[in-house]
Design goal:
This protein has helices spanning 6-16, 23-35, 38-54, 71-74, 89-98, 125-134, 148-161, 186-194; strands spanning 56-57, 64-65, 79-86, 103-107, 139-142, 167-170. It has 199 residues and is an alpha/beta fold.
Length: 199
């Protein structure tokens, strides 16, 4: 007799399709669902369907929202002359938690990656160019990750926007707060020196 339970394996397989969820975690999540009451399972399933039905890209900044226009774009106190470009909504949320930035955003939903065949047409670059052309934007801050893809994306955006007279800046990279210089790699130290500011 087989020890496998087909319905449980199918459920775990679906959880395994989520980013960052390995086989063991997927199986634990599947068991968690099985342990729910039927009413809890129905609410869980309905929450997934409701999120899928209602969440869409903001027509202004491409941030995920369940409103017609996202709360950041609707906030008239935000500085609309400064746009921070991020790879995804998770990055936007991380910046918002700091409460230091009061401009608006543009979410790319990815980064350029020739190795994975992700081209400018696969991310929300056209929307950014159209926005810069139609709005009174003075500065674009590029806040992509300091990876090969993030740097390539930042460079590409800079080359597109600078001829239009837009100030393009890049967030600084370097030694993290509380970090020790002796443990930093050469690239991190180089970025720290490049991003230095007057004290």
């Amino acid at each position: 007799m087989s020890e496998s339970i087909k319905s449980l394996e199918l459920l775990a397989e679906q959880f395994g399709k989520l980013g960052g969820v390995g086989k063991r975690t997927a199986m634990r999540l599947a068991f968690s669902v099985v342990d729910m009451t039927e009413a809890e399972a129905e609410r869980f399933a309905e929450a997934i369907l409701e999120a899928k039905r209602n969440i869409h890209c903001c027509p202004v900044c491409q941030n995920l929202t369940d409103l017609e226009v996202c709360p950041i774009c609707s906030d008239l106190s935000r500085d609309r002359t400064t746009v921070c470009v991020v790879a995804d909504t998770k990055s936007l949320i991380a910046i918002e938690k700091v409460r230091e930035y009061n401009g608006v955003y543009h979410v790319l939903h990815g980064m350029l990656s020739p190795m994975q065949n992700i081209t400018p047409d696969d991310i929300k670059l056209r929307e950014l160019i159209e926005r810069v052309a139609s709005e009174d934007i003075k500065e674009v801050i590029i806040a992509t990750n300091p990876t090969t893809e993030g740097e390539a994306t930042a460079m590409y955006i800079s080359r597109l926007l600078k001829p239009a007279g837009i100030k393009v800046t890049r967030i600084a990279n370097g030694i993290p707060v509380g970090g020790e210089l002796e443990f930093a790699d050469a690239h991190t130290l180089a970025c720290a020196f490049d991003g230095r500011k007057e004290y």
